[in-house]
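Why predict the complex rather than its parts? Because the way molecules touch one another can change local conformation, and only a joint prediction can capture that. The input here totals 225 residues.
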Amino acid sequence: DQQVKQNSPSLSVQEGRISILNCDYTNSMFDYFLWYKKYPAEGPTFLISISSIKDKNEDGRFTVFLNKSAKHLSLHIVPSQPGDSAVYFCAASRAGSYQLTFGKGTKLSVIP
Amino acid sequence: EAGVTQSPTHLIKTRGQQATLRCSPISGHTSVYWYQQALGLGLQFLLWYDEGEERNRGNFPPRFSGRQFPNYSSELNVNALELEDSALYLCASSLAVSFRELFFGEGSRLTVL
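Output of the joint prediction:
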């Protein structure tokens, strides 16, 4: 039972355009959501997070939107840069739990 | 400040053998997590250690075990290796007070032949 789903295995975007990565979850107990970026041969690195009490969090070129009623979150990267090419993992946790549940990841390719 | 370090980087074993992977958390971090990333899958939670105790484990058989030492470093042991244990094993650490943001090491690639 996959509680965090990233339905797009891959995404290609032109440099300078917006990249939108999507994530759906099924567990209504999740109250904190994170995005991680992973380059080949490296561990995932934390990118941005959002608490369920918010619907938007912004950090530079990265913005995460949360739609609790739809159990959906998205990561917007604008403008996209070639260095953003990586696998992006969506993760979620619930209050009182000390582990993250990850999606399978979306491979983003930013084309120069 | 040094990040999470894992060793070995690569490990090749044969079926039935045992594998031991090691992890040193970021200085000051008391919680250590182990995740498995098999081909085509996301990160699957394996184990969580905090203050030397196993706090939780994921849906993995008892062949997967580990421990956390007094200096908060950790060891993951996989006994009776099977071919499907071939994966990238990632260790992460966190501060107890900000547990929701995990800091990952670069992983140990285990290949079972």
